[in-house]
Amino acid sequence: MTSATPIRTVEEHVQLVLGRIAPPEPIELALLDAQGLLCAEEVLVTEPMPSFANSSMDGYAVRALDVADAAEDNPVVLPVVGDVAAGSRTAQSVAHGVCVRIMTGGPMPSGADAVVPVEWTDGGVARVSITRSATKGNYIRRIGEDARTGDVAVTVGTPIGPAQVGLLAAVGRERVLVRPRPRVVVISTGSELVEVGQPPAYGQITDSNSYMLAAAARDAGAEVYRAGIVPDDKRRLLDMLQAQLGRADILITSGGVSMGAFDVVKEALREFGTMEFVRVAMQPGMPQGFGTLGDRDTPVYCLPGNPVSSLVSFEVFVRPAIRMMLGKRRLFRRTVAAVLSQGIESPAGRRQYRRGLLHRDEDGYSVAPVGGPGSHLLANLAQANCLIVVDEAVTEVPAGEPVTVLPLLLSGG
Ligand code: AMP
Ligand code: MG
Predict the structure, then answer these.
(1) Any alpha helices (H) in 59-174, and if so which ranges?
(2) How far does residue 268's CA lie from ligand 1's centre (Å)?
(3) In this predicted model, what pLDDT tens digit does every residue of 215-266 receive, in sequence order?
(4) CATH of domain 54-141
(5) CB count in 10 Å sphere of residue 22
(6) What are the residue ranges in the chain where pLDDT is below 50?
(7) Residue 409 DSSP one-character state
């Protein structure tokens, strides 16, 4: 990457990237796997809910006329001629002057037009003494009172949460068409990298980016695959990309995109027509590669290798794309305004993302910078819960001034 490399603003790069994102086709998933996704079909109610009249209380199914005069000082005593439990399938009927004991959810016996809850009675088994009158329809769940045949149960674009899962089950759907989770493949590049758990020799470091980016992608709603580490070798990188493209809706590499002599990702991919390696006016995360590769025009992000640069780049450029693929309406996190507790400096002409600790008290939000601007400071990153965003034109923000903050811990949303 030379100083002749084009430079663009964060907004320009975001727009360019999002312009290349096409959501995957809807797929049918088992009900529980659909949780958290957007419904991609209009699901109709096929049977009225409830489909039969039933009692909403434990009590006695009666004819309302028979208990019209019941009162504390004038109990009406009726013989109990049967029992209806929930799930009971024997047809029962209630004639004048008698009643049937009924449980919540039990089908209403023919002839009965009201339920007297057990609380209004002496709870009798052979005969019951009723001390309150009940009007017609009392404690009866009517056919179709919840939903009628042909009603829309779940519309296209509805997020499927627990209640929607319940409703879909209630209308008999074992599977439902949804906007799928995009499959995100993460590849780490760098000859210095070793797999986690393998002791690094002098000069080697553990690959943390592929875990971190996979976790970030999953947090954004993707299904993630860690493809592992590729050394700084053009052939091996291309082989790895080739092998992984088939299962990726988004491919992310980290490392190898800056100005070093062995920045293989840039060297290997710049010759592919749609891939661009640019400078984005931000700190960290200035070198960025993006384009599409393969038969399906899979978006490929080549993020810088420093852990903080990688995660900030993901946050700014990849997370909105994953949300777009999921069909979410809101692509970007909500920012909050917070008072800066300690002054910071920022490079002119670049948007700075500083790690911070956001805190809320009675007076509102305040934020303290965590560590310095160094993009290798992973431990500091892990202590932070937000990014402090300092605009391109601003070079200094004194303590006490308001700043824009991107809270990081609130996933989903
Ligand atoms: P690069 O972008 O390849 O020039 O790497 C920049 C810095 O990030 C170097 O110090 C790398 O060792 C480090 N780095 C690159 N990839 C990873 C990774 N996967 N995990 C942790 N650190 C990395
Ligand atoms: Mg490298």
Answers:
(1) 162-170
(2) 17
(3) 999 999 999 999 999 999 999 999 999 999 999 999 999 999 998 888 999 9
(4) 2.170.190.11
(5) 12
(6) 412-413
(7) S
306 lines ligand 1 (CB under 6 A): yes
Cα separation, 187 vs 252, in Å, equals 6
Residues with CB under 5 A from ligand 2 (ion): 190, 255-256, 305
Nearest atom, ligand 1, residue 229 CA? 19
Who contacts 80 (Cβ-Cβ below 8 Å, separation ≥6)? 60, 98, 99, 100, 101, 124, 125, 126, 127, 128
User: CATH homologous superfamily of domain 336-407?
Assistant: MoeA, C-terminal, domain IV (2.40.340.10)
- Check residue 260 and give its pLDDT: 81
Cβ neighbors of 68 (< 8 A, separation 6 or more) are 133
- What is the structure's pLDDT at 413? 42
> Rounded distance, CA 99 to CA 115, Å?
10
- State which fold the 27-49+145-179 domain adopts: Molybdopterin biosynthesis moea protein, domain 2 (3.90.105)
Strands 114-117 and 76-84: unpaired
- Ligand 1, atom 3: nearest CA belongs to which residue? 255
Please report how the helices 319-326 and 10-18 are oriented relative to each other, as an axis angle in degrees rounded to 10. Answer: 30
Count CA atoms closer than 13 A to 355's CA, side-chain side: 23
Domain boundaries, given as residue ranges, for the chain: 7-24+180-326, 27-49+145-179, 54-141, 336-407
Radius of gyration of the chain (CA): 32
Which residue out of 204, 208, 209 has the highest number of ligand 1 atoms within 8 Å of its CB and is therefore the one to mutate? Answer: 209
**What was the pLDDT predicted at 412?**
45
Which atom of ligand 1 is nearest the CA belonging to 265? 3
Report the CATH number of the 7-24+180-326 domain: 3.40.980.10
